[in-house]
Request: fold
Amino acid sequence: MIRTNLSTRPFYNERLVHMWLIAVAVAVLAATAFNVSRVLRYSRSDTRLQTQASGDESRAADLRRQAARLRASVDPKQVDFAAADARQANDLIDRRTFSWTELFNRFETTLPDDVRIASVKPRVDRDRGILLTINVLAKTVDDVSTFIENLEKTGAFMNIRPADERMDDSGLLISSLEGVYVPAAGKPAVRGGGRR
Reply:
């Protein structure tokens, strides 16, 4: 067996090993650089978020103090006064939507010949709606009863009841009727021989 090396220079394939080592070193350096950049980026982001969170907490505490101060400065009498003004404004709006023409058209279609209307007074009630007080002059109680029946048949008047009845000097019955008026309940019909 020959134990000598016959080549002038032995070839051990060192170049391939060096290239592989350089590639591994480059990959390790790239991974390290990537990791370092991520750590720095997240560190800055974390610092920024902590600063923002502490600022938000101090702002929230300041807003809570302001809210407590404002609550303490609110006068309940002023709130009640504002609520009363709002109720009055709503009442005026409700009155503005009340149609006198529609109401009198309904009276025209239901009024018997021997009954006259002396006065009408509407009032808006929160719970019941529009309450009417109607003062009528009639010859007999039956004429007033007929008028009440005619009003309730329209569907726009409910619970019409005489509140007060008395006779005047000329012998006419003065009756004060009270009841609920619901304008949207029915349309006023025009009777053939009615007054205009």
About this structure: The first strand starts at residue 115 and ends at 125. The first helix runs from residue 14 to 73. Strands lie at 115-125, 129-138, 157-167, 173-181. Residues 188-196 have pLDDT under 50 and may be disordered.
